[in-house]
Amino acid sequence: MRLRRPAPRVFDPEEVVEGGGRADPSRGCRMPVTALYGLCRWDGGIADRDLPRMAAALRRFGRSGSDHWTAGSIALGIARHALLPEDEHVPEIHQRGRRYAVVAEVHLSERESLVAQLDLDAQTAALMSDAALVAAAVERWDEAAFDRIYGAFAVAAWDTHERRLILARDPLGARPLFYHATGDLLAFASMPEGLTVLPAVDAGMDTDQYVRLLRDLAPERDRTPLRGISRVMPGHHVIVRKDGIDRVRWWKPDLTPLILADQDDYAAALTRHLENAVRACLRGVSGRVGAQLSSGFDSSAVLAVAASQLARRTVDAGAVKITAFTAVPRSDRHTQVLAHHIADEGDLAAEVAASLPNVDHVRVSVEHGTLDTLGRTTGLYPLPIRNLCNLTWVDAIADAARARGLTIMLQGGMGNMTLSEPGVLALQELIAAGRFPTWFRIARKLVRNGWMQWRGVLWNSVAGKLPERVWRFMETRSGRAPIATRRFTLLRDAVYDHAGSIARETATADPYTVIDVAESAQPVATSVQNRLAIASADIGSLHKAQLGEWGIDTRDPTGDRRLMEFALRVPVERLIWDGEPRAILRRAMAGRLPASIVDNRRRGLQSADWHEGLIQSRSALIDEIERIEMYDPVASLIDIDRLKALVADMPDLDSPRWQEGDTEVDYRLTLLRTVSIASHMRRVSRSNV
Q1: Are 451 and 546 in a shared domain?
Q2: How far apart (Å, rounded) are the C-alpha atoms in residues 600 and 518?
Q3: Same domain? 503 vs 541
Q4: Are 171 and 535 in contact (CB under 8 A)?
Q5: Which residues pair with 553 in a beta bridge?
Q6: Maximum CA pair distance of the chain?
Q7: Are residues 559 and 269 in contact, defined by beta-carbon separation less than 8 angstroms?
Q8: Are 370 and 617 in contact (CB under 8 A)?
Q9: Which of 114, 161, 255, 687 is most buried, judging by how many CB atoms fall within 10 Å of its CB?
Q10: What are residue 340's DSSP bridge partners?
Q11: Quick one: 183 and 113 in the same domain?
Q12: In this structure, are 96 and 238 located in the same domain?
């Protein structure tokens, strides 16, 4: 059938009925974001009648109006707002003579490289947005284009020749993309609310996925807690045809070890990749930006590099500045104090900020209770928040940034994958590989440098290979009695056992897939597996929701694809070379960060006053548990009696029990997680109890 290219039409996402005309920009768009949506009716029905409803549901992601393209039974839409200078050049969704109609949300990190591969001259490329370049790449290379695209992206491309839809995401999943495919309907959207408004989508709760979350497992591959709504996995593309769906992992990084001459070469390579990653995140920046700053290596390294690069730019006759935000406890009276941890990261963070002339420092404390925003959280995020006490300070920083008019926030959330993997796993990997001289050299230096004692070296070298019974016995003898995995969840016994059996059955031998089920806490993962697990966290919808709520674009240079691919190839022994954990990063940052950071051997403790916020929310906690108990689908899954007992036995604020690991497991990791997930379940099902 010949497709007719209709004249472009736009409509106001504030309306739920179709109408002409673009929304008046003067109405305000405090949220500089973009959303994709579209649908296909395989039965030949008219596709665009539901587009206004989808656009209205996604209006917080772009209030300046939506463009769409229709061709009979297929319709694609995009709610636009410029994030980059080139975004002002709005591409057509489908250009005459092209095979593909494309909507895309993109922030390229290697724009010039893609321009060169497309053989575009500079004048032509200057008038093309990142999305237009991606559309040209898909036109040239079909789905093979995604491996050539570096940056954050979500793409939907309709193949007018073969009548198939291609949905794709970047390796980190920095841009979310969801879809519904049943019967005669295929629909996709950047966020689930763009799908749940469709009459044909029954998006009740998927109990199995909530059970996995309650057992501290990720949802199954492609699944979400919403029944009938799937997600495009990070680093994957999904091809949907009338007769079926193909899900393909397109990102398969080279995992062969990268052999360089010496440690200086690794440090130089890391520095080069980090510099390029930060530069890509600062593309288009002309005013003050924000940054999350802790006392750790990752956020400090990102801030130092960003400050150096922005110091060379000027605005109003001065260098572009960064406002760095550090979450600190309300006071030092009730903070949790654990060995080798820093409860209040404010002073060390302030020292980093003071060493950089174009950085201002702001300390942010959370004053409200942990559950005060639970209702808003449930409506804002597609997935339940499993660490509510950390989200409180993330939200507080976002509030402080928005109050200062900031729209870009730098962070180092993926640094544990790319920058600061300590390398301790080298001990067991070298033993397993029979590389005993290298093992002994590193082990001796670890002891000599005071990082470990010999018994610690030996334990970290063999623990992962010991039978579980022996491992648990040795842990108990050492005074570190392991906490049973069962204690981390309030699932009823039968439900717990069933969830574990499903997880084992769905595990695969794919070297790029991290098996997320462990029947014990026994360390078995390799360094590469650990880092791939971080990459699979799928944080796109979290950042998207924060974009829609606060209008702040979170950019993480430590999640840059080129940096990730370098980090995965670094031989694990190089990370702990000469008995120094994080050896490459320490060498790269020497002289760029204060010695207090480079030589620091303690870790920052996030939300060290978490129990104070929990106690402050005790009444709200009791009320929420009562609602959970009245909602049968949830109450049948979890042990309500134990949940109530934990609240009844909650220690007083001054109790020394808050310093014990068992107490943290019971309340921070078990009680709060259960309440957050159970609350999400009943709200998704629209329960009024």
Answers
A1: no
A2: 31
A3: no
A4: yes
A5: 408
A6: 75
A7: no
A8: yes
A9: 114
A10: none
A11: yes
A12: yes
CA–CA distance, 509 with 499 (Å, rounded to integer): 20
Backbone angles phi, psi at 539, to 5 degrees: -95, 10
Contact 269, 569 (CB under 8 A): no
Q: How far is CA 369 from the centre of its chain?
A: 25
Residue type, 582: R
Q: How far apart are CA 497 and CA 492, in angstroms?
A: 9
Is the domain of 270 the same as that of 339?
yes
Q: Is residue 629 part of a domain?
A: no
Same domain, 413 and 438: no
Global pTM reads 0.90
Q: Does residue 478 form part of some domain?
A: yes
The DSSP result for 165-221, as a single string, is: EEEEE-TT--S--EEEEETTEEEEESSTHHHHTSTT----B-HHHHHHHHTT-PPPT
Q: Are residues 197 and 292 in the same domain?
A: no
Interatomic CA distance for residues 306 and 274, integer angstroms: 10
Number of domains in the chain: 3
- Could you tell me if residue 592 is inside a domain? yes
Using CB atoms within 10 Å of the CB of residue 458, give its burial: 0 to 12 exposed, 13 to 18 middle, 19+ buried.
Answer: middle
Q: Is 30 exposed, middle or buried (0-12, 13-18, 19+ CB in 10 A)?
A: exposed
- Element spanning 289, H or E: strand 289-292
Residue ending a domain, among 509, 533, 557, is: 533
Contact by Cβ (8 Å): 115, 244: no
Same domain for 50 and 137: yes
Q: Which helix (H) or strand (E) holds 117?
A: helix 111-117
In terms of Cα–Cα distance, which of 295, 324, 357 is closest to 599?
Answer: 295
pLDDT in tens, 378-422: 778 888 888 888 999 999 999 999 999 999 999 999 998 899 999
Q: Is residue 41 part of a domain?
A: yes
Helical segments of 10-121, H only: 51-57, 111-117
Q: Structure tokens of 487? A: 């204690």
Q: What is the pLDDT of residues 57-89, one digit of tens each?
A: 998 887 666 789 999 899 999 987 667 777 777
Q: Would you state the pLDDT for residue 85?
A: 76
For β-strands 66-71 and 9-11, DSSP reports them as antiparallel
Check: CB of residue 77 under 8 Å from CB of residue 99. no
Output the six-digit token pair for 323: 């406002």
**By three-state DSSP, how is residue 364 classified?**
strand
**The 3-state secondary structure of 463-531, one letter per residue:** HHHCCHHHHHHHHHHCCCCCCCHHHHCCECHHHHHHHHHHHHHHCCCCCCCCCCCCCCCCCCCCHHHHH
Q: For 40-49, 318-327, 368-377, 608-617, which range has the lowest pLDDT when averaged over its residues?
A: 368-377
Measured distance CA(266)–CA(256) in Å, rounded: 15
Closest C-alpha to 102, from 86, 78, 72: 78
488: containing domain: 426-533
Tokens representing 292?
């999350």
Q: How far, rounded to the nearest angstrom, does the alpha carbon of residue 392 sit from its chain's CA centroid?
A: 17
Beta strands in 430-552 (DSSP E): none
CATH number for position 88: 3.60.20.10
- List the CATH number of the domain containing 267: 3.40.50.620
75: its two tokens: 């319709």
List phi, psi (to 5°) of 542: -65, -50
Tell me how far apart the alpha carbons of residues 577 and 59 are, in angstroms, rounded to a whole number: 51
Binning pLDDT at 50, 70 and 90, where does residue 217 land? confident
Six-digit token pair at 412?
A: 């180092």
User: Strands 359-364, 314-315: parallel, antiparallel or unpaired by DSSP?
Assistant: unpaired
